[in-house]
Every structure is written in C-alpha cells, then in structure tokens.
Design goal:
By secondary structure, the chain is of the alpha/beta class. It has one domain: Metal-dependent hydrolases (TIM Barrel, Alpha-Beta Barrel). 39% of the residues lie in helices and 19% in strands. It contains eleven helices and 13 strands. An eight-stranded parallel sheet has the order 2-3-4-5-6-7-8-9. Helix 2 packs across helix 11, helix 4 runs parallel beside helix 5 and helix 8 crosses helix 9. The protein binds zinc ion.
C-alpha cells in the first residue's frame, strides 16, 4: 500500500551543519544556549571552506531527498568562506535534484566588514538569478546599521529576510530591534522567547527537535497569529519527524489538541516554496493522514519526482551516488574536525 503527497518543505535548515556529527567535544561543557553557540556552532562555521560546504550540502540534500523533502530553505554561515558559498550550496542541491531557497546569515560577530561581505554575497547570488533571500544571523549579533541594511537590500531585491528571532533569552530584545523592519515575506526562526503580543510580521519557523536539544524551551507556536512552518534547524531533513515532534510537544501542554494544527504547519512550507506542491512523493505507507503519520514510525519515500523527473526510485537517488556522497562527506568531516 502506498500513498502520494507533494514534496515536503524543510522551512529552516543549515546544510553547513551536516558534517558536525562526530566533531570533537568542546573544550568545556556548554551550560547554556549562548555557550552552545560559542563552543559548537561558531567554532564550526569559522572552520568551513568551500570544499567542506560542498560536501556538507550534498549530504544534507541527499538526506532530505531520502526523507521526501524536495525543498530546502537554507540559512548559511561560513565567515571565512563567504564569497561564492551560496553558489556552492545551490550547485550541490541541483546535483541531487532538490529545490533550494538560500540566504547568507550576516553577522557583526567578525566586525562590520564580515556583515558587509555577507550582504554582498546575498546580493550577488540573487542578482545572478539564484533563488535566495537576504539572511541575518540574529538581531543580537548585528548592529542596527546591519539590520537596516539587510532589510533595505531585501526590499530592493523584492525578497524576504530569513533570521533567527528569540531562540534563546540572549535575543529577547529582537522584537524591539526589528520593530518596523519586518514584512510578511520574512521568515522568523524559533521565536521561543517572543512575546505572544509581538508586532513582527512574517512566518514563524518552528524547530522542535533543535529547541529540545538546546534546552531553550517550548516556542508554543499555536499562540501566534503569524503563519507557522516547520524546520529542522540543521538536524537532518526529515520533516515528518519535525511534524511528529511538533505534535507531541503541543500535546505536552494541551491534551485536547490533535495532530491537525502541526500538520497545517507542515503545509505552510508550500506557501514558502510553492513549486514543491507540484512535486510527488510516493510513500511506503497508506494513508498519509496526520493521525496515522503521528503514530507510525519508519514511513519512507519509495519514489520522488521533482518537476516531473524521478530523482528517487526504490528509495535510492537516481542522479547521484549516495555511497560516494557519504564517502566524500566523511573525508571532508575529518578535515573539518582536525581544524577544531
Ligand atoms: Zn537555525
């Protein structure tokens, strides 16, 4: 028994984090979210070069496809390999056959020049025809000038901004800092500590597994009037898993709720990447109904079509060699971990 759905959309991914698994433990155990950023992610992203980014993006795109995800909304950062990084990610996704909407997340963590070069990478990629947004890491790592420059560039280019908002308590000023800048096409990731009566515009991206892993708290996205979509925050590309977790986390604070709200959040992905609606995933399970999916482990895609082309057949990618992508990822991960 099989059933078919459109291609799933992962509305918040970090393809650059695919090589993080197995990385050496940080020098000291991180005891809060800020320390997780400083000791894990900000050490990892500064060590990335374009070869690592390519291997990481290929692996992330492959793992997304293997989970029925045909569109990845990626938020990228590599402060020592900014120029051309978005092209490398776009080429890797095109090779595997999945859709990509990518942004370079600017930050003033490495000085104002780093933020400027990040903005230039967004502008260059989008003006060259790339499917992009303008990225901001988060308000708390950017000056007001950088926030305004990013919002201005996005408006000029006719795209939205993809930004982390109130993921941890270190970013609780975000609603004030972003006041008046946001528009409906912005993507606001996490929003765990965003007040319910905030005035920010845009779609809120809920990343249940990442929020649990970082002990930042429960975003309870049902409390917002904004649209909500589901992401993984870089922990793989399995959007059904995000849905299942989103459902049980909502259930953990409201025993009366069913899986339909969490399923609607998954469906919001198609408003962000509408083309994925035309993609076709044939699943190993029938029916693909929210109540069934919420309690059925191991559902997997058998066949995936993007733009009419079969890019996964019998559970295997047709355009790329999965073993080779994994082998190259292992080599590049070893180089990356040696730098750490
Ligand atoms: Zn993120």
């Amino acid at each position: 028994m099989t059933a078919t759905t459109p291609g799933l959309v992962c509305a918040h991914h970090h393809l650059y984090s695919a090589l993080a698994r197995g990385m050496p433990a940080p020098p000291k155990v991180a005891s809060n979210f800020q320390e997780v950023l400083e000791q894990v992610w900000w050490r990892l992203d500064t060590a990335l070069d374009l070869d690592m980014i390519r291997a990481s993006a290929l692996l992330g795109a492959l793992e997304a496809l293997e989970n029925g995800t045909t569109a990845i909304v990626d938020h990228h950062e590599s402060p020592n390999a900014i120029e051309g990084s978005l092209d490398v990610i776009a080429e890797a996704c095109a090779e595997v056959g999945v859709r990509l909407l990518v942004a370079y997340g600017i930050t003033d963590r490495h000085g104002a020049d780093g933020a400027k070069r990040g903005l230039e990478e967004n502008e260059r990629f989008i003006k060259a025809g790339g499917n992009g947004m303008v990225g901001i890491h988060a308000a708390f790592t950017c000056s007001d000038d950088s926030l305004e420059a990013a919002a201005g560039l996005a408006a000029d280019l006719g795209v939205g901004v993809h930004i982390h908002v109130c993921e941890g308590i270190g970013d609780i000023d975000a609603p004030n800092r972003l006041e008046g800048l946001t528009t409906d096409d912005w993507l606001l990731s996490h929003c765990v500590h965003l007040p319910t009566d905030h005035t920010l515009r845009g779609t809120i991206l809920h990343n249940p597994m990442s929020n649990l892993n970082n002990a930042v708290g429960y975003a309870n996205p049902a409390r917002f009037s904004n649209p909500v979509a589901l992401g993984t925050d870089g922990i793989g590309g399995n959007v059904l898993e995000s849905f299942r977790l989103a459902y049980v986390m909502q259930r953990s604070v409201d025993i009366t709720v069913g899986p339909d709200p969490a399923w609607r959040w998954l469906e919001t992905g198609w408003d962000i990447v509408p083309e994925a609606r035309d993609d076709e995933v044939t699943w190993s399970y029938d029916p693909m109904d929210p109540w069934h999916i919420a309690f059925t482990p191991g559902i997997r895609p058998l066949e995936v079509k993007v733009d009419g082309e079969t890019i996964l057949a019998d559970g295997k990618p047709t355009r790329v060699d999965a073993d080779e992508i994994r082998a190259v990822a292992r080599e590049q991960a070893a180089r990356l971990h040696a730098r750490l």
